[in-house]
């Protein structure tokens, strides 16, 4: 995420890159698919959940699944903030988190006030579950 601070879109120099990252941990299968135009592909439920983490995340943030959050907390040294429970299409409710940084990571991250407002994100019908 720190790498986009100095990144300029050549044909839109006044716009800032609005990167979203989603991470999930688990098993997957990878391989080359196709004969005429081969592509390297990754398959599995892990890939689908990581995609859901990205698509339900916010610009300039790294969205973590509960599995990845648990792993990073076990390793230690990561700065994590719980986002709350969201309803993932095809998966049901999951408590997710934001990755904010890591001990010893001294590069400047893009300021969140540079991100596009939440109402301009396309969440493809996800539901954020509020605790009452």
Highlighted features:
single chain, about 130 residues, alpha+beta, 5-stranded mixed β-sheet, two-stranded antiparallel sheet, globular
Q: Strand pairing plus helix content: what structural class?
A: alpha+beta
Q: What's the total count of β strands?
A: 7
What does the average pLDDT come to? 87
Q: How much helical structure, as a percent, in the residues?
A: 10-25%
SSE pattern: EEEHEHEEE
Structural commentary:
The protein has 132 residues and is an alpha+beta fold. The protein has helices at 45-55, 66-75; strands at 20-23, 29-33, 39-43, 61-64, 78-88, 92-102, 127-128. It has a 5-stranded mixed β-sheet. A two-stranded antiparallel sheet has the order 2-3. It starts with 19 loop residues before the first strand and ends with a strand. Residues 125-132 have low confidence and may be disordered.
